[in-house]
Amino acid sequence: MKVTVRPGDTFWYYSQLFAIPIHLLIDSNSHVNSQNLQIGTTVDIPGFILSEHKIVPGDTLWKLAKSRTLVVDALLLVNPGMIAESLQVGQTIRLPERVIKPIVNGKRVYKSEDMMKDIEKLKSIYPFLRTTSIGQSVLGKDLLELGIGRGAKRVHWNGSFHANEWITTNVIMTLLNDFLLAYTNSTPIRGFYIEPFYFQTILSIVPMVNPDGVDLVLNGPPQQEPYRQEVIKINNGKFDFKDWKANIRGVDLNNQFPANWEIEKERKEPKTPAPRDYPGNAPLTEPEVIAIEKLTRSSNFACVIAFHTQGEVIFWGYEGLEPPEAKAIANEFSKVTGYRAVRFVDSHAGYKDWFIQEWRRPGFTFELGKGVNPLPLSQFDEIYQETLGAFLASLYM
Ligand SMILES: [Zn+2]
Q1: Among 26, 72, 281, 296, which is most buried by a count of CB atoms within 10 Å?
Q2: What is the dihedral of CA 347, 352, 356, 361, to 10 degrees?
């Protein structure tokens, strides 16, 4: 919600008026000098939207404000020039509405454009949420990183490396939305308040690493050639892509990292582009993987979690290169999710493997849910509750 600064207004006053943490106001208005607010400046109030209300007999500003647990000055602020004493029946005024319901609905088919629309909406309500394009997919879709918090420790999450594991994006986006709601409304999640985290951590989220693949699974083949012909050919002429894990070129993005990539190359069955498991003809050939690699190299992440489905397992080791604390963290995750913590698996060239190998810091692969990919949306609630525990643990550890 945007307001126009009046004489005497300060961020501190706005934070009192709307019961919003002051640093969220400051971070939502990074273009504004918070110490010296200029009259007439437009300022964003996070966590609020404006609605319109037609005055009916009996309405008073005091009553309207009270019904929204606000004071009259909050209404005066969003209706510049309005005079409280001369309210007319039939007159339309604006009312600040606290946002208490989520934008994101995790229990629906979630294509890349649905996610992008939700991100736009979230950004307009919560301008302290930062978005950065870290690259483009093969088909030119923006790969977005979402950033939140102002702490020193950077924690990274990503989802939908694998196309038919797209429910991981639903989970991550719902977690983000619930986090934003909890913080702007000062309500706890499972007894935890978000405020301390905001100062300890920066959360980096790439909710959909493989948008071309996700859209292929959900929408069928793209119009663009040569990709249309190619994916149909790779898929043996079938138009059902629900088993597809790779990107649009038939490369498995989680087999592309330079952590013993050669072993995977040697032993993996597909020697040419395939719906799954083909590691490419060299490491780091695909733009989606390059974007994640660059982001990781430039970000100094303390910990990363890559979300996949399925199996209810947390993988936490790689070749014994993981730091000693990784085990304790994995056990904590295991406790809150009910998932099994597994140190070694006979697999290389994944994002988590590469992260552990390069930085010797904690890196995890979560296999959410149980069943056959793509997991049905009927599993969403259960998976969400399991992941929420891990989300809170990753912020506070
Ligand atoms: Zn996967």
Answers
A1: 296
A2: -150
Distance separating alpha carbons of residues 314 and 334, to the nearest angstrom: 7
* Main-chain phi, psi angles of 232, to 5 degrees: -65, -40
Q: What is the sign, positive or negative, of the torsion defined by CA atoms of 298, 31, 27, 170? A: negative
Is 269 catalytic? The answer is no
**Do 231 and 221 form a contact (C-beta atoms < 8 A)?**
yes
Separation of alpha carbons 228 and 219, rounded Å: 12
Of the candidates 332, 367, 382, 386, the residue annotated as catalytic is 367
Q: What is the CA radius of gyration of the chain?
A: 24
Give distance in angstroms: CA of 352 to centre of ligand 1: 12
Q: Are the CB atoms for 304 and 204 separated by under 8 Å? A: no
Please check whether residue 364 is in contact with residue 151, taking contact to mean a CB–CB distance below 8 angstroms.
Answer: no
Do the strands 313-315 and 363-368 form a parallel or antiparallel pair, or are they unpaired?
Answer: antiparallel
Tokens read off for 15: 């934070």
Return the SS3 of 157: strand
Q: Which residues contact 265 (CB under 8 A, 6 or more apart)?
A: 279
Contact assessment for residue 75 and residue 92, using Cβ atoms and an 8 Å cutoff: no
Give residue-wise pLDDT tens across range 249-294: 999 999 999 999 999 999 988 999 999 999 999 999 999 999 999 9
pTM above 0.90, yes or no: yes
Of 164, 145, 198, the residue nearest 310 (C-alpha): 164
- Which amino acid appears at position 176 of this protein? L
pLDDT, tens digit, for every residue of 329-339?
999 999 999 99
